[in-house]
Write a structure and sequence with these properties.
The structure holds two protein chains of two kinds. Chain A contains nine helices and no strands. Chain A is mainly alpha-helical. The two termini of chain A are 24 Å apart. By secondary structure, chain B is of the alpha/beta class. Chain B contains six helices and nine strands; from the N terminus they run E-E-E-H-E-E-H-E-H-H-H-E-H-E-E. Chain B has helices spanning 42-49, 71-77, 93-103, 110-119, 135-146, 165-179, and strands at residues 3-14, 17-27, 30-35, 57-64, 67-68, 78-81, 153-157, 183-187, 199-202. Chain B starts with a strand and ends in a 6-residue tail after the last strand. Classes of the chains: A mainly alpha, B alpha/beta. The interface between A and B is medium-sized, with 24 and 28 residues.
């Protein structure tokens, strides 16, 4: 791709991201449902477990796993809407007429990434506070959230394009996404456990970087097959 | 040399039902009407020409100076408007056009977008959310979308639907402006729409 080509790609991707943000700010459907789901999960977990419900030696592992369960399912209520909404509202036709699939996928991935960061910014501190969970290496934790959030956004957005025209979108999305994101979530949980103990989880973070790279390359190469007729 | 569109041996089925087969056409300038009964495949044919659908067999070529266009140059060479072309209800008419032009890889100066909306009679509603538009206003916006990249080839599927007299005049004026520089393919159920067509392709009735 030439310099002009890549700047055009980025400008297009950014315009799609900005459009999705403008639509979301005016409708507030995805953000409201995601935040409500996260709040409901947090409330249930904090009432059921609370600060003293987990033995101290299992604390890091249980809290890390629960945090990622909350984040994953909260994200799963909003992120897959990226392409499904375009198909349901009929705007997908206009998008296909003006742009190739890859910049659209990149723009929607970017928007989903920002949405995930917003979810994580609200959920993770509230989760730590309600469960009395101290994360000893918060900067490592931020790195884990960014890396795992990016991978989750790439995969969710790509699968959203893939299932957008299917008849049972939600079921199909969950069935396909679980085996694909399982390695990402396991690495994220392992990295979160290490970060909460005060270690920098280099190995798990390297796995996340490799996952993100492979997912982004795969999504870019297969964008047209997933989105075009 | 003008930009031309050439289709050869197009065929398409939906499931087991054959919609049409053996459709060939060539457009260089002027208006080509596409007529036929409901279900004969007028919309399907125009979508295939716009690359929104793939034919089961046959090919479509868009050429300038004998060179086949592809990628962005192909996309920008063909403008399409049809009843199932939808816009973002949460955005204004101007925001919709601005977004689609930038997503298409071209700048969208505010004055240019205002001018395009004025040409279809939507200047007073430029800042209004499309969700509050009437059927006729949405149809005018579809015309503005079809000409957003100044495509030399226009594919218009039922462009007069839902329009008042003024709206029909807008569509007629657009067609008259464009027919001199490139082909305009016009699908319609109303024979009056073909009064000024240079040729009319009549699709055979749908198979039972």
């Amino acid at each position: 791709m030439s310099v002009a080509g890549s700047s055009s790609f980025l400008a297009r991707a950014w315009s799609v991201c900005a459009k999705d943000a403008a639509v979301e700010l005016r409708r507030r459907v995805a953000s409201a449902s995601v935040l409500f789901f996260a709040a409901a999960c947090l409330t249930l977990v904090s009432f059921a477990i609370g600060p003293f419900g987990v033995p101290p030696d299992a604390r890091e592992t249980v809290c890390s796993a629960l945090l990622w369960v909350v984040l994953f399912f909260s994200a799963a209520t909003g992120l897959p809407r990226a392409f499904v909404r375009e198909e349901e509202s009929g705007t997908a036709t206009a998008l296909r007429l003006v742009s190739p699939a890859a910049p659209i996928l990149a723009g929607k991935t970017l928007f989903n990434f920002f949405l995930f960061i917003a979810i994580a910014l609200v959920t993770a501190p509230a989760f730590a506070l309600l469960l009395g969970w101290r994360i000893a290496a918060p900067w490592a934790m931020c790195g884990v959230l960014l890396l795992a959030g990016f991978g989750l956004s790439v995969v969710s957005t790509f699968l959203s394009a893939l299932v957008a025209r299917a008849s049972h979108k939600s079921v199909l999305f969950v069935l396909i996404s679980f085996p694909i994101v399982a390695p990402l979530l396991l690495s994220a949980i392992a990295a979160t456990v290490a970060a909460s103990r005060g270690d920098v989880p280099w190995t798990a973070m390297r796995v996340l970087v490799a996952y993100d790279g492979a997912a982004a390359c795969g999504a870019y190469l297969l964008a047209s097959a997933a989105w075009d007729e | 040399m003008p930009t031309t569109i050439r289709a050869e041996g197009l065929a398409r089925s939906w499931g087991e039902r054959r919609i049409f087969s053996g459709i060939s056409l060539f457009g260089e300038r002027g208006v080509i009407g596409v007529a036929g009964e409901n279900g004969s495949g007028k919309t399907t044919l125009l979508k295939i020409l716009a690359l929104l659908l793939r034919p089961d067999s046959g090919s479509v070529r868009v050429e300038t100076d004998g060179r086949e266009l592809s990628g962005d140059s192909r996309r920008r060479a063909v403008g399409w408007a049809g009843p199932d072309l939808a816009f973002y209800d949460e955005l204004s008419a101007a925001e919709n056009l601005t977004f689609f032009r930038t997503a298409g890889g071209l700048p969208a100066p505010a004055a240019d977008i205002r001018d395009r909306l004025a040409r279809v009679g939507l200047a007073p509603a430029a800042g209004r959310g499309v969700g509050a538009f009437s059927t006729g206003m949405k149809q005018r916006l579809r015309m503005a979308f079809a000409t957003l990249f100044d495509a030399p080839i226009l594919l218009l599927d039922e462009p007069m639907i839902g329009l008042d007299a003024e709206g029909r005049a807008v569509v007629s004026r657009t067609i008259e402006e464009r027919r001199a520089t490139g082909p305009v393919l016009l699908a319609s159920n109303d024979p009056r729409d073909f009064e000024r067509a240079d040729q009319v392709i009549v699709l055979p009735p749908p198979a039972p």
